[in-house]
Amino acid sequence: MAISLEFRQAIQANDTRLVRIMLKDNLVIDPTFVEFDQMLSMAEKIEDLYDQHDGEALNYDVTSWSKDYLNDQMVQVVYNFSKERIALLKSMCRQLFGQRAAKIEKERHGAAQTTTFSRRQVGTGLTIGGVVATAVGVAVAKPIVIVAGVAAVVVGGTCILTDMEGNR
């Protein structure tokens, strides 16, 4: 994850309020908390980042959590950035935005698994496509399709041969 320049600058400027706002906003933006945890780790350099909990009775009853209660706590955390309130907010976001978190995780996982094809695989696909195109061109008597098919077979064959030579 790339932490924003604005966040880094807020830490350097020791702007506790702005850092807290950016952190609490990130809880909702990314309910997987991957980026939040990285940001929090960086922000802990600020001496007065955390507050002692103000004594407010926090609601840990999952069945009664709502977006309204979440919004109330999001406002409160700016003025009372306690570890207890942060833990509650993380639990609430996990509960209320679980589907979004799952989607983000799936996208991250998918992005990490990029598919690469060898020359042999590309060549095989081109060759097969070329053979099919050539056969269709012959069947429908379209010389342009035949030429394109033969060209694909030649390019595909070249890819296969260069892959084989590269693996010797």
Task: Describe what you observe in this structure.
There is one protein chain. This protein folds into two domains: 5-112, no CATH class; 119-166. 71% of the residues lie in helices and 0% in strands. The protein contains eight helices and no strands. Helix 4 packs antiparallel against helix 5 (83-96) and helix 7 runs antiparallel to helix 8 (143-166). The chain has 168 residues and is an all-alpha fold.
Briefly, what is this?
This protein is an all-alpha fold. It has helices at 5-12, 16-29, 34-43, 67-79, 83-96, 98-112, 119-139, 143-166.
| Count of individual beta strands | 0
Using the CA coordinates, give the radius of gyration.
Answer: 28 Å
| Silhouette | elongated
* Domain module count: 2
Structural class: mainly alpha
> Helix count, per DSSP?
8
How many angstroms does the end-to-end distance come to?
39 Å
Task: Give the low-pLDDT segments.
Answer: none
Largest sheet: none
Mean pLDDT: 85
Question: What letter string, H or E per element, gives the SSE order?
Answer: HHHHHHHH
Which bin fits the share of residues in helices?
Answer: over 70%
* Beta-strand content: under 5%
How is the secondary structure organized here?
Elements: H1 5-12, H2 16-29, H3 34-43, H4 67-79, H5 83-96, H6 98-112, H7 119-139, H8 143-166
Helix pairs in contact: 2-3, 2-4, 4-5, 7-8
Kindly list the characteristics that best describe this protein.
single chain; about 170 residues; mainly alpha; 2 domains
